[in-house]
Amino acid sequence: MGFCPQCRSVESLDASRSGPGPNGNVSRLLSEVSLSDQARRPTDVAEFDRVVGGGLVGGSVVLVGGEPGVGKSTLLLQLADGLAARESVLLASAEESAVQVALRSERLGLSSEGVHILSEGSVESLLSHADQLNPALLVVDSIQTVTTEDTDGNAGGLAQVRESAARFIEYAKRTGTAVILVGHVTKDGSIAGPKILEHMVDVVLYLEGEADGGLRVLRSLKNRYGSINQVGVFTMGEKGLDEVPDPSGILVSSHRPGASGTVLFPVVEGRRPMLCEVQALVVPSSLPQPRRSVKGFDAARLHQLLAVLERHAGVALGKMDVHVNVVGGIRLRDPAVDLPVALAIVSSVADQPLPLTVAWGEVGLTGEIRRAPHGKRRRAEADRFDPELLIRPGTGGVGTLVEALGAAGMPASRPSRQ
């Protein structure tokens, strides 16, 4: 102001900084830091514990994202119900009323006796109630629907999401309570809100799968307390998400060895090998621009494989509709799926079943097959499922795609120079 509003004297106001002063903390040896307050709390959901590294760490903040309807709220309600048998749990839902959550709990057959529910969108009210209850776990569903009084803007805005998350993180570190934040996703599949949100939290999990399919995969994108090389597999049933300790048995349970256009692929998700089935259907097209339909596989990678097949293996696909599907609704990011996709396409073109049942290998633009990592794990998983399967790794004596097709009995030949 420049002057005192009471006595009107000039330059009588001094600026001072308000806030916490020195807290008296001193440095200490890392080996002397006690880990007793950061003990893990195992839940009754073993697949969830596998992904986070053995259980929830006290004072940690976990961000769970996923498409609408994939089962985020269902999974966390089951997790809260299992943990509530030993410790108190607070479920804060700003999207649903207490009656809606109770109806879901009844449909899933959960007792939920130790789960406290609070339908509130104010961060201050949630934290005040949490301070009184002192729960072992606080679940906020979702971070995009709560607001704090300290920041302007509507719920879901960048500033509101950032400041609300900061308040929950401060509460978790101060009290030692594990906090799980549910995050919405954008149309491109990334978690909505500022990217700094993923940097602020300790663990970032992503639940993926087709909304109308049965299989769900829980991935760890970030974990300050453990490895990210683990995945959890669930199936959606009438009683919620059921754990799948043996995914290979479900993914290939309906595999038809005598059918054309199908190949088994041992995918390695993190450190976990799973057998899945890759199917292809190639039919003549009546359209000027043939269809390229892909499900569970990168569409750009399919176009690349089609070009390699036509250039280096002489398989003409320019007037064919090509459909590729990964059975079970899982999404493959493993580059070793190139060889199974190529073999399935050629098998469908020739309408000839493959004696080659399991394959893996990355296909390059020059037609070479490159070695894929985790070969021993892939072979062991195929042997565990059926020791009689014919295994053909990417570079186990097969150097090019043409040689691989010949070894599989496929009628492929090199194109003429014309």
Fold topology:
Layout: E1 40-41, H1 46-52, E2 56-57, E3 61-66, H2 72-83, E4 89-93, H3 98-108, E5 115-118, H4 123-133, E6 137-141, H5 158-175, E7 178-183, H6 196-200, E8 203-208, E9 215-223, E10 231-237, E11 240-243, H7 247-251, E12 262-269, E13 272-284, E14 292-295, H8 299-312, E15 320-326, H9 338-350, E16 358-359, E17 362-363, E18 369-370, H10 375-385, E19 391-392, H11 401-407
Parallel strand pairs: 3-7, 3-8, 4-5, 4-6, 6-7, 14-15, 16-19
Antiparallel strand pairs: 1-2, 8-9, 9-10, 10-11, 12-13, 13-15, 17-18
Structure description:
Helix content is 27%, strand content 23%. It is elongated and about 95 Å long. A hairpin with a 7-residue loop joins strand 9 and strand 10. It folds into two domains: 209 residues, Rossmann fold; 159 residues, Ribosomal Protein S5, domain 2 (2-Layer Sandwich). The protein contains eleven helices and 19 strands. By secondary structure, it is of the alpha/beta class. A nine-stranded mixed beta sheet has the order 5-4-6-7-3-8-9-10-11, sandwiched between helices. A four-stranded mixed beta sheet has the order 12-13-15-14.
Number of strands: 19
CATH homologous superfamily label of the largest domain: P-loop containing nucleotide triphosphate hydrolases
CATH architecture annotation name of the largest domain:
3-Layer(aba) Sandwich
| Shape descriptor | elongated
Cα-atom radius of gyration: 27 Å
- Look up the CATH topology of the largest domain: Rossmann fold
Percent in helix: 25-40%
Strand order of the largest sheet: 5-4-6-7-3-8-9-10-11
Structural class: alpha/beta
For the record, give the distance between the C-alpha atoms at the N and C termini, rounded to a whole number: 86 Å
Would you identify the regions where 5 or more consecutive residues have pLDDT less than 50? 391-397, 414-418
User: How many alpha or pi helices?
Assistant: 11
Average pLDDT for all residues: 84
Beta-strand level of the residues, as a percent range? 15-25%
What number of domains?
2
